[in-house]
Amino acid sequence: MRMVDLIAKKRDGKELSQEEIAFVVEGYTRGDIPDYQMSAWAMAVFFRGMTPAETAHLTMAMARSGDTVDLSRIHGVKVDKHSTGGVGDKTTLVVAPLVAAAGVPVAKMSGRGLGHTGGTIDKLESIPGFTTELSPDAFVDQVNRIGMAVVGQTGNLTPADKKLYSLRDVTATVNSVPLIASSVMSKKIAAGADAIVLDVKAGSGAFMKTVEDAWRLASTMVDIGRSVGRRTVAVISNMDQPLGLAVGNALEVREAVDALRGEGPEDLTRLALTLGAHMVVLGGKAGSFKEAYEKLENILRNGEALEKFRQFVAAQGGNPDVADRPGELLPKAPYRITVPSPVEGFVHGIRAEEIGLAAMMLGAGRATKESSIDPAVGVVLAKKVGDSVRRGEILAILHANREDVADIRQRVERAFDIRPQRRKKPRLIHGVAE
Ligand code: URA
């Protein structure tokens, strides 16, 4: 086989076989296929797309390109959850204890964040003493003992995806549905998932700007799951404004604790219950979505989810009292700077990307892989889309480690689109692909 022939075949819109796709992925991972040929191939895929069979072959070839996690010692169906990424998305911190309390084991590997704010691992590390480094045995034992563990990614998982993703980043081939879908699904499969619940974000703060594009991505990932024997459900949710109110690592942990106490923002709580309910169904702990949802609402109400969070934090070296006194125990920024509204009206939009960027400029996210983050800083919204606002009323509060943040303040002010006409609350969940 020659790479040049496979590039030409894809360029001409023909379907590649399983062997041909394996040749591309294995050759590229080993370094036999150079970046310039892989770039041409990725661009051919970008324009020609891939059939469902090709997408499934690409997923499995990438999933098998490096180490895979063996979760077979964990009892029960291992259901993983993945979000395509959004601003203020702390759902894992709420969903994992919720679902674990319902009897579905959560053995989760998460990433650090690049860009806006930290990833789940950065958020968890804002809890004093918390460690996200566990040996494979300790990871499995903890899940069997308390039902959940969340660790940072270790080992050489999906090296093919890592290499291809970096290449796509600099060759304008990121935004291809089969390439995104296979990238996401290969990582979940390599991480040992039996079943997968995806939160596909749609809107200004997401990869997929329109609901239609998000549906296409969601359906492609569900199809991949079906053809490789991993039951997959994808929820399409709104990312036209940040999720919840808090954006920033410790601030998001605090909000997640509020949600686990039953006192969180409505959108975060509802999304967590929805994703969690699908996980409970896939995990075989409820017969229907409705039954699962009600079960989780009950677990939230009776304090079991919060108790699971306490056990989880304690098991990974953190202070479990953070579940009861988050305001006291989590790191706090020295300055709070308010952003008042310059006009009166109704909030029509909050550009999530801008809020994320503001949080990053305050120090909550990484501009490059090497930058360090400040766990305490971020933005807390006081208004959401649909709310009325008076002139001078607070739109948001910046939690900063310095006083001079006039530029960031202005950015947050400008992220709010305020108009005289009323605006209905936006829909949170656009649909479910399964
Ligand atoms: N997230 C991924 O993991 N892969 C992509 O290709 C895009 C987003």
Quick overview of this protein structure:
The protein has 434 residues and is α/β, with parallel strands linked by helices.
Tags for this entry?
four-stranded antiparallel sheet, 434 residues, single chain, 45% helix, alpha/beta, binds uracil, four-stranded mixed sheet, 15% strand
Sheet with most strands:
4 strands, mixed
* Sheet with the most strands: spatial strand order: 1-4-5-13
How many angstroms separate the termini? 37 Å
Structural class by secondary-structure content:
alpha/beta
Note poorly predicted spans. none
Global geometry: globular
Count up the helices. Answer: 17
Distinct compounds present = uracil
Helix content: 40-55%
Mean pLDDT: 95
Count of individual beta strands: 13
Beta-strand portion reads: 15-25%
Oligomer: single chain
Note the run of SSEs as H and E.
HHHHEHEHHEHHEHEEHHHHHEEHEEEHEE
Radius of gyration: 22 Å
